[in-house]
Amino acid sequence: MGKITIEPLSRVEGHGKVTIVIDESGRPVEVKLHITAIRGFEQFVVGRPAEEVPRIVTRICGICQTPHHLASVKAVDAAWDVEITSAAKKLRELMLLGSIIHSHALHFYYLASPDFILGPDTDPKVRSVLGLIEKSPEMLKKAIALRKFGQSIVEKIGGRAIHPVTAIPGGIAKTLSEEERDQFLKEIDTMIEYAKESVELIKSINEKYMDVVKSLGVIDTYYLGIVEDGKHSFYDGILRFLSPDGREKVEFPFSQYQEYIGEHNVPHSYVKYPYYKKVGYPEGIYRVGPLAMMNICDSIPTPLAEEARKEFIDIFGNPANQSLAYHHARLIELLAACERTKELLEDHEITSKDVKVEVEPKAGSGVGVVEAPRGVLIHHYETDDRGIVVKANMIVASTHNIPAMEEALKQAVIEIFKR
Amino acid sequence: MEDKKITVAHVQLSSCCGCLISLADTYEKFPDILSSIDLVYCQTLMDAREIPEADVILVEGSVCLEDHHALEVAREVREKGKTVVALGACAALGCVTRFSKGGQMPKPVHGSFSSLTEIIRCDLAIPGCPPSPELIVEVITAIIRGDKEYLKPFIRYGECKHESCGCDLIVNVINKSLCMGCGICSASCPTRAIEMIDGRPLISPHLCVKCGVCSFQCPRIEI
User: Fold this and answer.
1) Are A187 and A195 in contact (CB under 8 A)?
2) With a threshold of 0.90, does the pTM exceed it?
3) CB–CB contact B47 A15 (8 Å)
4) Binding-face residues of A in 264-303 toward B, CB within 8 A
5) CATH class for domain A41-418?
6) Structural domains of chain B ordered from first start
C-alpha cells in the first residue's frame, strides 16, 4: 500500500489536495479530492440587512466577485418581489460580461495555458505565467488586454474592479456615461478579434494534444446551465439539466432549484457534493461551466460564437464529455461574452438613467442565479419582515463541479497508471 | 538594480485571492513586476509545492484558529520569511472573516479567524480590501530599495495595535480632537460605510467590512 499526496493544488484559486491510494500491485484504488478551506459565509450573512449582503459575498472569491455580487442582489430582488428596469438589467449584465471576459482570459492564459504552450513536461519552475513572459510575450499582451478590458467594465459600472458595490436591490446605483461607453466601443472590436484568435489557438493546441484531451478526464455526467429560450445565456433565464447521453432535457425556474439539486456531505472534504435529485447520489453528479453550457444550450445567440460552438460539437460530440475540452468551451464563451458586450454597448438604453426602482424590505424568500465563469452560481436568502436575512444558502459554481472533478481525476489516474 | 533579485513567496490562507488579483490588475506592468523579482512560491500562479526560504513572504488571508494546518503555515512563513508582509485586510486586520461564526456544514467547527498580525510577528501589513495595485507595487518596491521611511505606516500596521471597524477613527482622531472633517475616510471606504455628518464621520457597522482603509488614509492619525 502506498499513498501519493499532491498538495497544495496549484494554479487554482483556493485550497485543495489530491490523494491517491495505491495497492500492493501498484494499482490506484482510491482517488480523492479534498477541499480544505471554509469561512462560513452562509452562516455569517444571517442577521444582516439583505441589501448589504451583495457587498459582503463578493469576498467569497477574488476572481469572480462580480457574479457573487449579482447573484446575491438578484436573490434579494426576488425575495422582495422587485422588478428592475430593463436598463438596470442591461447594466448588470454588462458588468457580469466584463467579469467573464477577465476571468476566462485569466483562467486560460495565466493559469492553464502554460501546460500546453510550454508543455506538460517542462520544469514546474518555468511552467507558469512566468515562463510565458519569456516564451510568448505577444500572446500574454493580448491576454492582459482582454483582462484589462473586462475589469475596466466592472470598474466603470460596479465602482471597483475587485469587489464591486453598485448593484442594489431595485437596480443599480451607477450609470454608464456616453463617454465611457464610447471608450469601450472603440476597444470592443479588438477584443472580439483577440477572442477569435483565442479560439483558433485552442484548436491548434487541441490538435497537438488530442490523444490526451480524448483520454484523460473523460467521464459521463449530467450537465447543468442557464438557457433563455433554449439559448446560451449568462445573466438570466432558466436552468436546464441535460442527461449524460444528451437525450433528456429538464428545465426549471431558478426558484425551484431545491427540488432538482441535492447536497451530499462527504467526510474528506469541506464542500458539499451537489447532485441531480431526481437521479440521486452518486449517479446524479453533474458538471457546470463552459463545457456544460456548450452541451445544454441549443445555440449561442451571437454569430461568431455559434459558429465556434458548431465546430466544437464536430470535434467533441454532443454532449462533449471530455474534461480537457473545458478550455476550448471557455474560449468560445469568451468570444460569446465579447460579442454580447458589443450588442449591449450599441444598445442606446445602456446609458439610460432609469436604473432604480423603489424597494420595500419585507419577509420573503428569493433565489438569484447567474452564470459565473466557472458555471451556475446560486444564492438563496430568506428575509424577515424587516428585510433581515434569516437563512442563506449558496451553491458556488466550483462546488457543483467538485464531485465530477473527483470522478474525472479517478478516470485520469487509472488511465495514466495503465500506461 | 543590478543586484541579485529578491526572492518573493505569496502564500494564501483564508482569503478570496483578491489581493493577488489586485496585483495582476497592474495589467501591462504585471510581467515586468514578476520579472523584477524572483517569485519562488505562489500556489495560484505556479506549481512549487513547498514554501521555500525567501526574502519576502506576502501572506494573504486570515488564520482559522480551529485549523491546525493554517496555524502551521503561519509558523512556517515566520520561520522562512526574512520579511513577512500581511497582504490585504484579511491578513492585516481580519476583514470579513471577523464575521465568521462557524456552524457551516460540513466543517462547522471552523469559526474563529484571526488576522495574521495577531498570530505571528509581521514586519509589514498592508490594509485594504483589496489593497490597490499601485499600493502593493509601491510596498514591494520600497522593500527592494530598503525605503524605511515609506514603509513606516505599514510597519505600524504590522504591529497590530489597531482595531479596524472605524472605531479607531473615533478613539484616535475624533476623541482626541484631531478630526478636521476632511472626509478622506469616507471617500476611501470601499463599501461606503462612512457618511460625513456635521463634519465628522458616521460609521455604519452594517456596511463596514473591517478593511482598515479609513484610518490608514486618515491624515491626522499619529504614525
Assistant:
1) no
2) yes
3) no
4) 265-267, 269-272
5) mainly alpha
6) 6-159 (3.40.50.700), 168-217 (3.30.70.20)
